[in-house]
Each structure stands twice: as C-alpha cells, then as structure tokens.
Design a protein that fits this description.
This protein is an alpha/beta fold and about 290 residues long. It folds into two domains: about 1-105 and about 275-285, ATPase, nucleotide binding domain (Nucleotidyltransferase, domain 5, 2-Layer Sandwich); about 120-270, 2-Layer Sandwich (Nucleotidyltransferase, domain 5). The chain has nine helices and 13 strands. Strands 1, 2, 3, 4, 5 and 8 form a six-stranded mixed beta sheet that branches. Strands 11-10-9-12-13 form a five-stranded mixed beta sheet, sandwiched between helices. It has a two-stranded antiparallel ribbon with strand order 6-7. Helix 1 (about 35-45) packs parallel to helix 2 (about 90-95) and helix 6 crosses helix 7 (about 240-250). The longest helix has 21 residues, at about 200-220. It starts with a strand and ends with a helix. The mean pLDDT is about 95. It binds zinc ion. The site of zinc ion has 7 residues, from helix 4.
Amino acid sequence: MFGGIEAGGTEFVCAVGTNPQNIVVSDPMSTTTPAETFQKVIAFFRQHPPVKKIGIGSFGPVDIHRDSPTFGYITTTPKPGWANTDFAGVISRELGVAVEFDTDVNTAALGEHKWGAAVGLDDFLYLTIGTGVGGGVMVNGRLVHGLIHPELGHILLPRDPLKDPFEGNCPFHKDCLEGLTTGPALQKRWKVSPKTLPIDHPAWELEAEYIAIALVSFACTLSPKRIILGGGVMRQIQLFPMIRRRFQELLNGYLQHPAILRDVDHYIVPPALGDHAGVLGAIALAQQ
Ligand code: ZN
C-alpha cells in the first residue's frame, strides 16, 4: 500500500491505496495552521495499515529539490502561517516513512499520465484554473522541475484596457494569466460570483480568449501532445469549445499537426480522474 496527500490551500485530502479501484480516501480536512493540519494528516495514516511510501502534492511555491537544505518545504507562500514550513520532513519523521514531494499540479499531471487523460503520452501539460492557476509539465516522460518548478500561471498576457479595464489581481504582476482568469479575478471583474454568470455572458468569451492565448504560448514552447484543463473555473464546460476555437484561430494554421488542425477536441481536454485526481497523483508519485 502507498499513501497520498493532496495538500491544497483550502483543504487537504489523504488516501491509502494502489490505484483508482483500490483506494481509501479521507474526508477533506480544512487547511488551518500547519501544526493542526499535519496532526489530522498523521492521525489519518495512523488509523490505516502502514504504507510503503507517501507521495505529497502540495500548494506552493515549494522546494522540490532533493539536494536543497529546505527540500520538502512550502517556501514563499502568501498564505498566513505557512511560509517556510517543513512539510515532507514532519510527515516523514512522525510516521517513520519515506516521502516523495512535488507540486500539486505536477502530481495531478502524474496521476493523469498513469490512469487518466494522458495515458501513453510522454509530453503533455496539465493546467488548473481555479482559485489560482498552476501547471504541471511532462517532457520526455519526466515531470519538469528546472530551476524551481514551472509557474505557468504567471506568464504575462496582452490585455486591452478598452475591452477589459480590470487590471488583474495577481499581487506580483497584476494582469498575468492567474491575475486575469481565476475565480477570484472573475468575481472582482464582474462583481458577482462566477458561478452565477450565465453561460452566454461575455465573461466567458473573455476568459476563453485569455486561456487560448496562454495555450498558444505553451503549445509553441513545450510542444505538448495534449493539454488537460482542470480546476474549478474549467467546470464551466462551455469554455472548452470556445477555447479550442480561439486556440486554432490564434495559431492560424502555423502548428501543422492533425491533432491541432482536425482533432482539437481530443487535444484540449478535461481531466479524466475527476475529484480524486490530486490524491491519486500523490499515490502515483509515491509509486515512482
Ligand atoms: Zn502573477
């Protein structure tokens, strides 16, 4: 048996198991203080049979470099109380078990690669658009870590202030991808909960425009064989056809591949693992 921890800024989910058909998942645990949250996680694993290894997919930024003195830490997060928090070390010591540690989005990507929408694809990306925007990237069958880890949500986008006077709400860049497209950004721009916006509201056309621009950049730089779009905002499934159409229009035939020209419905897709994607990814990370 393996353990998995999906560590989100709002809630944590833990699981023990081996695959989507053989897994016991905890109730969501709200993310309060690190000490309190870790106690709940530790209690869950103590109630279940010992696991061989635990995989952790965490909100971040995180230090995922094994040779670093702060490996396994959540680093510069603006989330109160969580900056510079040892996460992997605490879990490993308290439970006496080895841990693997990566970003929440890399971990979700790994789950989709093993059991979901990217089975058999060694080059793809997983982008989540919810309360934040994050991306996990696989190239040549390996998750990309690089200098820190990819931060696909913070690429800068062209914004026409006449069409969109909202300046963006990223505390670092204002109108980066995250600053323009998250649930909180939609709420600020349109002054209502995005869940209450009708599907033909202009909000969605603008949203699809920004996401399509970002995907053009990612397709041109990373050459993914598929792009998976998850997260709360992408539950607005009317966005998928709008994004696909604008993606093709903006590329204007430049990337000459049937996957993009003729089969874009299978190129830009929702995740296949549903609500358990994160924690299943964490199990997959532990099994690596
Ligand atoms: Zn930003």
